[in-house]
Amino acid sequence: MAWIDNLFKMMTEKKASDLHMTSEHVPMIRESGDMMQLQGVPKLSREQMSQILMEICPERNKRQYEETWDTDFAYALEGCGRFRSNYFMDRFGPGAVFRRIPDKILTAEQLGLPPAILKLCEYKKGLVLVTGPTGSGKSTTLAAMMDFINSTRREHIITIEDPVEFVHPAKQCLVNQREVHQHTKSFAAALRAALREDPDIVLVGEMRDLETTRIAIETAETGHLVFGTLHTSTASSTVDRIINQFPSNEQEQIRLQSARGGRPESAQEKRRRSSYRPGNPVRHPRSRGQHPRRQNLPDSLRDADRRALRHAAAQRCARKAGQVRHRRADGSLRPLDR
C-alpha cells in the first residue's frame, strides 16, 4: 500500500473534499469548506514529497511532469473512491491537490435536482451547459444527469474527460468513457471522432478552447445531445464567454447556431456544507406572491436598513409598472396614483 493511501483514508473518514500536499508543509484537507491541517502528520520535505507523489503516478504522467511541471490523472483506492489528481511545482518544491470523487454516483433524487433540470435529460438534441466556479458541484450534477439518462433511456453515451472522474456502469445505455491523453489526444480530436461512433449523447468534461467549443456546437447542430461545463458564474456570462471566444467576423454566425442548438444552462454556486440541505429549493426573497414591502429580512439588520431595502424593492416594482413613488418631506412614501 502506498504511503499516501493513509491520508486518503483519513480524508474519507472526515468527509473532506480535497487533500492539499505542499513541500515543507503539513498536509491539509478542505473540510466543510475550511482548510485544516491533518493531525498527526508531519511536515514533508521536498525529497519526501517527490517520493510520495511518484509512488502513485503513472509513467506517462511522470514524463509529462518532468517536462512541464504539471500533470493530471485519476487514482483509485478501493473503499475510498477515486481521486482527481493534479501535480504542480512551486517555490517550496513538488506539490499536489487531490479531489475526492465518491464511489457511488449520487442520484438526481439524492441531490434534489428540480424537474426543470431533469427535463434537460429528455432532449434529443442541443447543447446543455452546467456552469459555475471550481468546487460548485458541476461534475456531481452532470454525473447525476448522466445516471438519470442511463437509467431511463436506451441510448449510446460517449464521455470525454480529463481525467475520467465518475465511472458509469452500463444500465439501459451503452456508455463509452474516454480519457484525454490516455484514450485520445485531445478533447477536439475525440469530439471529431465521436461523430463517426454513432452517439446519441456526448459529454465533454470541459470546453477549454475555441476548437472544442466550435465542434461541440456543430455536434449539437447535427442532431446530438451534448453536455458540457464552463467556469462561468451566470447563464448570461456563459453565452458571452462562448461567443467572445470566436473571431469578430464569426460571432454573429455563432449566435445563430447557439440559438438553434442551445438549451438552457444550469448555473451553480459554491456553498458551505452546513448551509446545504439536499432537496430544499433556494427561494429568492421576491418570489411570486410575496409583496416587496413584506420581505422577511434578517434580524441582524437595523430598522433603518430594513426600511431602505424594502423601499428599494418597492421602487423597482413601481418602475416596472411605469409608476414611481416619491418621498414626502417627512420621509414617508407618497401613495401611487390610481
Describe the structure.
- The protein has 338 residues and is of the alpha/beta class.
- The protein is built from 11 helices and 12 strands.
- α7 (187-194) runs parallel beside α8 (210-221).
- The chain is globular.
Question: In summary, what is this structure?
Answer:
With 338 residues, the chain is an alpha/beta fold. It has helices spanning 4-13, 46-54, 59-68, 108-111, 115-120, 138-152, 187-194, 210-221, 235-244, 251-261, 303-320, and strands at residues 18-22, 28-31, 34-37, 71-77, 81-90, 93-101, 126-131, 156-161, 174-179, 201-204, 225-230, 266-267. It is 33% helix and 20% strand.
Outline the fold blueprint.
Layout: H1 4-13, E1 18-22, E2 28-31, E3 34-37, H2 46-54, H3 59-68, E4 71-77, E5 81-90, E6 93-101, H4 108-111, H5 115-120, E7 126-131, H6 138-152, E8 156-161, E9 174-179, H7 187-194, E10 201-204, H8 210-221, E11 225-230, H9 235-244, H10 251-261, E12 266-267, H11 303-320
Parallel strand pairs: 7-11, 7-12, 8-9, 8-10, 10-11
Antiparallel strand pairs: 1-2, 1-6, 2-3, 4-5, 5-6
Helix pairs in contact: 7-8, 8-10
Features:
single chain, 338 residues, alpha/beta, six-stranded antiparallel β-sheet, 11 helices, 12 strands, 33% helix, globular
Assign an overall shape.
globular
What's the quaternary structure here? single chain
- Largest sheet, order of strands side by side? 3-2-1-6-5-4
Radius of gyration: 24 Å
The ordered string of helix (H) and strand (E) elements is HEEEHHEEEHHEHEEHEHEHHEH
The count of helical stretches stands at: 11
Instruction: Specify the biggest β-sheet.
Output: 6 strands, antiparallel
Spans of at least 5 consecutive residues with low confidence: 274-295, 297-302
Mean pLDDT: 81
Secondary structural class: alpha/beta
The fraction of residues assigned to DSSP E strands is: 15-25%
Question: How many beta-strand runs?
Answer: 12
Give the N-to-C terminal Cα separation: 78 Å
